[in-house]
Amino acid sequence: MENNQLISKELNDSFDQTIALIQDLSDIQVNRKPDEHSWSIGQVVEHILISSTGIPDRSTEPTDRAFDELVPAINGIFLDFSTKFDADPALQPRKDAYIAEDLIQQLKDRKTKLILKIKDKNLRLLCKDSEFPQLGYLTGFEWLTVISSHTKRHNSQIERTKALLEEIGQQ
């Protein structure tokens, strides 16, 4: 289960970074938008939470490829900050107002649930419930890499949003 420990550490670090980025923000700061076309930090965090509920693994099967073969492609997609994506409508934030402390607690809870859920799981199996756009079916390990890399991407967005709000004197 060495791979489980590796991806658990990745998830832990990604979520802890999100928590560190927002832990000193007030509710007002969490809800401010740098412009009308951007998400607030609260909306970014809600998007992270919606996108990280787990892996689609009700139906799995062995695969003949390396369990982590698509990790470089996944990281390439999410950690290329020069590329902008539109969130799938199902993954878009649903609220306009957030309480910072509630978001922090939800992040802690989500991190704990994910890590506990995968502790003894075989992450080398191909998850057949859902395909990832352009890449196809992923292993459990690769789906968790999606969650970790996606969270890191949005941590960068939170950092940029905080800097923009400071710059325009709203923080």
Give the SSE layout.
Layout (H helix, E strand, L loop, with lengths): L1 H21 L4 H5 L9 H11 L8 E2 L9 H8 L21 H19 L7 E2 L12 H28 L4
Antiparallel strand pairs: 1-2
Helix pairs in contact: 1-5, 1-6, 3-5, 3-6, 4-6
Explained architecture:
- By secondary structure, the protein is mainly α.
- It has a single domain (2-165), classed as dinb family like domain (Four Helix Bundle (Hemerythrin (Met), subunit A)).
- The chain is 54% helix and 2% strand.
- A two-stranded antiparallel ribbon has the order 1-2.
Summed up:
54% of the residues lie in helices and 2% in strands.
Radius of gyration over C-alpha positions, nearest whole angstrom: 17 Å
Number of helices: 6
Q: Strand share of the residues?
A: under 5%
Number of strands: 2
How many domains? 1
Helix content: 40-55%
Instruction: Specify the overall morphology.
Output: globular
Q: Which CATH first-tier class would you pick?
A: Mainly Alpha
Helix/strand/pairing category: mainly alpha
Q: Write down the CATH topology.
A: Four Helix Bundle (Hemerythrin (Met), subunit A)
Segments where pLDDT lies below 50 for 5+ residues?
none
Q: Largest beta sheet, briefly?
A: 2 strands, antiparallel
* Span of the ends, CA to CA: 44 Å
Strand order of the largest sheet: 1-2
CATH architecture designation: Up-down Bundle
CATH superfamily: dinb family like domain
Order of helices and strands: HHHEHHEH
Mean pLDDT across all residues, rounded?
A: 95
